[in-house]
Amino acid sequence: MSRRRLVSKDVSALAMGATLLGSGGGGGTDLGARILVKALGDRSVELVAAGDLPDDVVIVHAGLAGSPDVYAERLIDPQDLVRAIQAVVDAVGQPLGAIGILEIGGINALLAPAAAALLGVPLVDGDLMGRTYPTLLFNTYAVLGRASRVGAVVGPLADTALFRPSSPAMEARFNQHCARAFGGAAAAAYYPVAPADLAEFGVAGSVSACLALGERFLAAQSHSLRALAQAVSALHLVSGRVVSITPSEADCPGTLVLSNPTTGEIVRVDFRDEFLVLAVDGEVRHVVPDVIVVLEGASHRVLHVDEVHVGQTIAVLALPSVPRPAATETAFLGPVGFGLDPEVLRV
Amino acid sequence: MSEPATRLQQLLDDPLLLGVQVVAGQAGIERAVTDVVWLGPGSHQPALAQALCVTGPEHQQPAYLLDALLRRAFDGGAAAVLVVAEHQMLPPSSLRLADRLGLPLLWCAAADLQSLVQGLTVRVRAPEVARARTVIQLHQRLQVLREGSAMVQAVTDLTQIAVALVGSDGSCILGRLETPVDTTTLRAPVAQQLGGSLVHPVHNGSERLGWLVCDAPGTGDARADAQLVLVVLEPYLRAWLAEERRRLEHDTVLEQGVLAEIIADQGLISREAAEAAASIGWRLNGWHVGIHVVRDEDTDGRSDPFSAQRFISVLSEHSITVGALVDRSDHWAVWWSTPSEPSDDEARTLLRRLRVAAAALPARWGLAIGVGQPRPGPGGLAESLADARAAAYLASSRPFRPAVVHSQDLGITRMLLPLQQSESARVLAESILEPIRKADGGVLLETLQVFLENDRAAVVTARELGVHRNTVTLRIQKVVNELGVDLDDASQRLALLLACRTMG
Fold first, then answer.
1. B93 inside 8 A of chain A by CB
2. Beta strands of B328-466 (E only): which ranges?
3. CA atoms within 13 A on the CB side of B207
4. CB distance B63–A246 less than 8 Å?
5. Is B424 helix (H, G, I), strand (E, B) or coil?
6. Burial profile A73-99: b = 16 or more Cβ within 10 angstroms, e = fewer
7. Which residues of B233-271 are buried (b: 16+ CB within 10 A; e: fewer)?
8. Cα–Cα distance for residue pair A334/A276, rounded to 1 Å
9. How far is CA B181 from the centre of its chain?
């Protein structure tokens, strides 16, 4: 099922797929797409299934730590990712077999392939989340209580922090504090794992799925909303005018309220860093980990959480996330992980 | 019976809800409120129908909590949702959702939630409490009453709801109906609506005793009240009906026994029988006119069942007050009594009224009624009933129904009765008529009888049978051939006519 090689002409589809799986968060993919195109040049990156790699190599997962708002203004040097990966590889003392993606939604889906291109190693067709989540705590290892053996965060001046966390919570805290120390955003590498381990606990095939989703969306973006929703196999489609936005607060998710002038339906979308809940007339229709995507009404451009404004006409799609291994499915990946009551939000 | 349920608008005018604001869902402001439900942390899934759902600040934010509560309230048929919180910070999505669902969303800053919920509960449950009180009063009254009519009256007095008990045959047993209902069409023994009336079955296991009917049940709450009254009243009337039936069965057995003795002893009845007769209200010392009522065996009584009660009631409508009616399995023995000898005028009037009354009874009953001569005392009663029996016998041979014959009409034909009624005559008649008895579906026998009764007039016979004259002639020819008789011979004609009547 894997596409064997990733080349620069695939980048727009990968970026679009990652934007959709970002569910309104995960950072803008434009910057990541440019970095990936430049890193690839005329080269290509081999896509491999984790299980196809030899047993004696290590796979290192790469991505960004910190806030998307920071790297939207302060560019990222992909070499920092290479440094972070290298630091982890040196620490574990095993040869690097391939690079893995931390999360398939948002900018992280594009930076790990760029690092693979620069290092000249294959990219694993998979990731550790199956969509975007706000912190490292939601990756398939962390939800099982497994922290990264070694993690590295590299700042813009090549400052390198290397740590061996005792728990996923401590790992997330290291990550957060280092990023803050490095100016709010930094390159990071985590989870040096054996191929067999990743084959068991990683989200397999998510790069291919992301590419296919992006391709289908791009091909149908100029079509009607209904056709577009059908092209991406959306689970739900509603539209309306944004009549109110309540921003997210510490103990309270933000809320978009849409009114559909034709049907009279009142649509509520709850969000934090990503869109989390879709409810129509007070009935919950979709909840994280389903992917909720907001499109600008006329252009069908995918909107981030902070791009929606009152008065805008938007469409809301619900997509399935990339299926995770059954052993890693926990309530934490649903509303519980966001402090929301799963009983009330039962679909 | 009770006040109508409180409307939300009325409740908002109550001092209890002073300071409560309707923040959304104004369209539902006229909803009925019959309950108050507290939806706090740990509250389970109470019934929400027509309830004012009260909740605290914990449901005010985030939006999804209040939205979910609104949806749950709406789906459960709640009347409104009241959020009690210090500050009004209801989410915009909830306000719009309440408007969309037409479910009033209220807010107030009241501090004492417990008092508020208690006060509201008392206020909105007031109509229900009044209804419960009436039901208790109904039970208290009904349980000491022994008569069905008193029970129906008690219900009307207490609730101003008029009810009636209607039999399965559609006759009104108790109470009055402004609008008649045809309960004979009802099949399923369940409470239901029939026209504009409410009907409730009165049944004892699988046996249906009748229907309770409220023919002016009103609408809404009044209708619910009427339904409730029928439910409360039903077991009491059921018990009364069962008791009545038991008493009636006991009386019937007693009556049959006493009458059998009167008839057998020709008036010389035992002291015990005389006492029993007195105990069932028979005044045997006056003058009696016996009435013997028989009905055709093949008549269809299913849709219009025979009822001695109805028979008596129709006679009563025609100013005939019978002394008694005894069901003697193959006939009813009825008599009319006077303290002294009735004049000829009285006897004639009785006969005329009886004929009119019989005509008012369903033709499908196929009644043949014989009326005896007035006779005095218990012995006279036996004689008059014997006269009536003979007259009924003649009446049953008449081709029309209902047929009423007075024993005076028997005249000389009385002479023929013993011949017609004897078993040996019947056997003989059967053997004589055997060749034509079943031929052509019995039409030959019928044609022969009508032909002979009409003194061999083919035209009259044809008119009575609704056939052509030539058909009659042909049939009679066939009969003559089959039986080998000579109809010009008067003796043979008389014998054949007697044989036909015996067979009839």
1. yes
2. 332-338, 367-376, 403-406
3. 6
4. yes
5. helix
6. eeebebebbbbbbbbbbebeeeebbbb
7. bbebbbbbbeeeeeeeeeebebbeebbebbbeeebebee
8. 9
9. 10
Asked if A217 and A228 touch (Cβ cutoff 8 Å), the reply is yes
Residue B496 in contact with residue B485, Cβ under 8 Å? Answer: yes
- A107 neighbors A27 (Cβ within 8 angstroms): yes
Question: What is the least distance, in Å, from the CA of A300 to any CA of chain B?
Answer: 24
> In degrees, to the nearest 5, what angle opens at C-alpha B7 toward C-alphas B3 and B11?
100
Under an 8 A CB cutoff, do B93 and A244 touch? Answer: yes
Q: What pTM did the predictor assign?
A: 0.65
Joined together, the tokens standing for residue B157 give 């007095």
Amino acid at B282: W
Question: How far apart are the C-alpha atoms of B173 and A346, rounded to whole Å?
Answer: 58
Q: For residues A252 and A274, what is the distance between their CA atoms, to the nearest angstrom? A: 14
Identify which of A255, A265, A283 has the shortest CB distance to residue B63. Answer: A255
Residue A34: CB atoms within 10 A of its CB come to: 15
B chain contacts of residue A284, beta-carbon cutoff 8 Å: 64, 68
What are the residues of chain A with a beta carbon less than 8 Å away from any beta carbon of chain B? 243-244, 246, 252-253, 255, 257, 259, 264-266, 268, 270, 277, 279, 281-284, 340-341, 344-345
| Chain A residues inside the 8 Å CB shell of B58 | none
Which of A252, A264, A266 minimises the CB distance to B62?
A: A252
Query: B448 with B476: CB under 8 angstroms?
Result: yes
The candidate with the shortest Cα–Cα distance to B262, out of B285, B228, B235, is B285
SS3 B213: strand
B139 CB within 8 Å of a chain A CB: no
pLDDT tens sequence for chain B (504 residues):
656 778 999 889 988 888 899 999 999 999 999 889 988 776 667 788 899 999 988 888 899 999 999 999 999 999 999 999 888 889 999 999 999 999 999 999 866 788 888 888 988 888 888 889 999 999 999 999 988 899 999 999 998 888 999 887 777 888 888 877 777 777 777 888 887 788 888 887 777 788 898 887 777 778 888 889 999 999 999 999 888 888 888 888 888 888 888 888 766 777 887 888 888 888 888 899 999 998 876 655 455 566 788 888 888 888 888 888 888 878 899 999 888 889 888 888 988 898 888 888 877 788 889 999 899 988 888 889 988 988 888 888 776 778 888 888 776 666 676 676 677 878 888 888 888 887 777 788 888 888 887 788 888 888 878 889 999 999 999 988 888 888 888 888 888 888 887 776
Contact B96 A259 (CB under 8 A): yes
| Distance (Å) of CA A298 to CA A22, A101, A225, A314, B382 | 21, 33, 9, 8, 106
Residue A188 C-alpha, separation from nearest chain B C-alpha, in angstroms:
34
Helix (H) or strand (E) holding B202: strand B197-204
Best residue in A238, A244, A252, A255 for a mutation probing chain B (most B CBs within 10 Å):
A255
Spatial separation of the C-alpha atoms in residues B41 and B83, rounded to whole Å: 13
Q: In what order do the strands lie in the sheet with B207-214?
A: B172-174, B164-166, B207-214, B197-204, B192-194
Give per-residue burial for B491-502: e unless 16+ CB within 10 Å, then b: eebeebbbbbbb
Please tell me whether the peptide bond between B217 and the residue prior to it is cis, using omega within 30 degrees of 0: no
Across the interface, of B68, B91, B101, the residue whose CB is closest to A344 is B68
- A266 contact residues in B (CB cutoff 8 A): 93, 96-97, 100
The pairs formed by A299-304 with CB atoms below 8 angstroms and a separation of 24 or more are A300/A221, A300/A222, A300/A225, A300/A228, A302/A16, A302/A19, A302/A20, A302/A22, A303/A24, A304/A22, A304/A24, A304/A25, A304/A28
Give the C-alpha separation, B40 to B51, whole Å: 15
Quote ipTM for the complex. Answer: 0.89
A250 to chain B, closest Cα gap in Å: 11
